[in-house]
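Changelog entry

Holo records now carry the ligand SMILES as an explicit input line rather than a separate metadata file. Below, a converted record for zinc ion, shown in the new format.
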Amino acid sequence: MAVLPIVEVPDPRLKLISTPVEGVDDDTRALIADMFDTMYDANGIGLAAIQIGVPKRVLVMDLQEEEDEEGKPIRAPRVFINPEILDPADERSLYNEGCLSVPDQYAEVERPKRCRVKWLDEDGKAHEEAFEGLLAVCIQHEMDHLNGIVFLDHLSRLKRQMIMKKLDKQRRAAA
Ligand SMILES: [Zn+2]
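Structure line, unchanged by the conversion:
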């Protein structure tokens, strides 16, 4: 298990289409462990394998919406292998999205409000469930990564360029 560097825009790897996992095995589970370590270390709520440079259809998520008595978020890790989105709702909603591959930048993205999702878990068992709210936003955002799309691709060119400029500035200030 390890915290790995996160691939950031405009790295061309983020445009790759990830390939399905052929059989869920110990290598897959080791990848998942690295993904959780990396996501928690970066205070993210979702991560696709390509964000650590592995073009496989694997996502991890943890919305950490519940808190314990001390106000610390309670971990609720979820794994999605070969996920598929079914029946996206016509009704759409807006959410101010961010991404570990686009550090500290946020923008409103419109997506279907609800969807069903089909996936395998880390034991290779199949699941299907209806998602809404932040869970629906997050799974659709992460699914996009498997198809070579980042949330910036949903924005106007002007907005995208503005964010890339801000990122550049931020990186120069940190250098
Ligand atoms: Zn992302």
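Spot-checked after migration. The beta strands are 46-48, 58-61, 78-86, 92-99, 102-112, 114-120, 126-132. The helical segments are 26-41, 133-146, 157-174.
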